[in-house]
Design brief:
Layout: E1 2-4, H1 12-20, H2 28-47, E2 52-58, E3 63-69, E4 74-79, H3 82-92, E5 98-105, E6 116-122, E7 130-134, E8 137-138, H4 142-152, E9 159-167, H5 169-178, E10 183-189, E11 192-193, E12 199-200, H6 206-211
Parallel strand pairs: 1-10, 4-5, 4-7, 7-9, 8-9, 9-10
Antiparallel strand pairs: 2-3, 5-6, 11-12
Helix pairs in contact: 1-2, 2-3
Bound molecules: uracil.
Length: 217
């Protein structure tokens, strides 16, 4: 199932607007901070769908019951653009184990198609765990699918959530077909991918805006 936060008015739209704004996004610190804030908001939204159980707490006055998460999800950061967004999740799920996946678009063909390259995977066992994959731009969906395939070799998660700031309809279709058991959480679904497989209207290159332009090795 896909959950789109922009179907309701909330502060998420304020931070998303700043991320998209070609002038405001020049402020790198603010850009990273807004990705982090949206990570916190989506962490809170996803938390509502996780299993909770009652626990007791002793206040200075008496014992009382409170509903607590039954388990901590494993947070998987898709580097590099995912880092600030992931930090937002980690500041809410502050006891979570974390996985890291280095994913990037390989050499482009003449028609701009590309293969996704994964060159770094570090993860705890995922057997029976709730896995949250954190990548701000769900464009083609190929890097997320490849990340899930690599992570599944480290144990089969009990549930999979995919968190994005902006998703394309094409990327959502791709993942819904190939990973029907996963829930997708996004702050907006944009119109389409352009010929370079960038989301439009989108916000540009999230990794470059957060950390600076890359150069070819
Ligand atoms: N990655 C980005 O940073 N932006 C896009 O539009 C698509 C992928």
């Amino acid at each position: 199932m896909t959950f789109n936060l922009s179907t309701q008015s909330s502060l998420a739209q304020v931070y998303l607007r700043e991320l998209r704004d070609v002038e405001i996004q020049k402020d790198r610190l603010r850009f990273r901070h807004n990705l982090e804030r949206l990570g916190q908001i989506l962490a809170y939204e996803i938390s509502k769908s996780l299993p909770f159980s009652h626990q007791e707490v002793q206040t200075p006055l008496e014992r009382t019951e409170i509903s607590m998460p039954s388990e901590q999800p494993v947070l998987s950061c898709i580097m590099r653009a995912g880092i600030p967004f992931f930090n937002g999740f980690l500041s809410y799920f502050d006891h979570s184990d974390c996985a890291f996946v280095g994913a990037y678009r390989g050499r482009h063909e003449k028609d701009f198609t590309f293969n996704v390259e994964l060159d770094y995977v570090a993860s705890p066992s995922l057997e029976g765990k709730t896995l949250i994959l954190i990548d701000p731009m769900l464009a083609t969906g190929k890097s997320l699918l490849k990340a899930v395939e690599a992570l599944r070799k480290l144990g089969e998660p009990s549930s999979i959530h995919i968190a994005a700031v902006i998703a394309s309809p094409e990327g959502i279709d791709w993942l819904e077909t190939r990973l029907p058991q996963a829930d997708i959480w996004t702050c907006a679904i944009d119109r389409e991918l352009n010929e370079h497989f960038y989301i439009v209207p989108g916000l540009g290159d999230a990794g470059d805006l957060a950390f600076g332009c890359k150069t070819e090795a």
